[in-house]
Amino acid sequence: MSVSDGYLTFVLDQLRLVLPVVRTRRMFGAYGLYAGDLFFAVIDDDTLYLKVDDETRGDYESRGMPPFRPFEGHASMNYSQLPEELLEDPEALRPWVERAVDVARRARANRGPRRSSTTKAVKKPAKRSTEKSAKRSIEPSVKRAARKKAPKKPGRKR
Predict the structure, then answer these.
(1) How crowded is residue 104: how many other Cβ atoms within 10 Å of its Cβ?
(2) Is the dihedral of CA 18, 9, 48, 40 positive or negative?
(3) 102-114 pLDDT, tens digit each
(4) What is the largest CA-CA distance in the chain?
(5) Can you give the C-alpha Rg of the chain in angstroms?
(6) CB atoms < 10 A from the CB of 48, how many?
(7) Degrees (nearest 5) of the Cα angle 16, 110, 97?
(8) How are strands ordered across the β-sheet holding 23-27?
(9) Pseudo-torsion of CA 131, 136, 140, 146, nearest 10°?
(10) How wide is the angle at C-alpha 64 spanned by C-alphas 61 and 66, nearest 5°?
(11) Selection from 78, 10, 15 nearest residue 49 by Cα
(12) What domains can you pick out in the chain, each with its CATH number?
């Protein structure tokens, strides 16, 4: 799982001809590609894989393009290899990239809202150890019981 600098530069140059704003993020030796905040492609082992779904997977399978499988023996992810010759022709590449971005958009819409990284998680209070917690919960009830049993002093109201 590695990506050469030359291949990464080539792919980004080609993609930016059809999708001006593409950013990368290093992921486990590979690169994830984003159009805005939509994760639409993966580069691994000097191969570009675009996001697919049931609607677009057939286009890749009909050309004999394999799915992205980062680990042998595991199920494929929803990415398929882009035919290499398309990278050299921006007009032929455009519809493939646009469909991959659309797939990413649909996948996000189906997944529902995600908590942004700026939203803080609500932390639950830390649990006390059971010995201390048991002792603290008993003490107030013992004190209340002792007060109730104690004789009342004259002139004092409770």
Answers:
(1) 23
(2) negative
(3) 998 988 888 766 6
(4) 100
(5) 30
(6) 29
(7) 20
(8) 23-27, 30-35, 38-44, 47-51, 79-81
(9) 40
(10) 75
(11) 78
(12) 5-111 (3.30.1460.30)
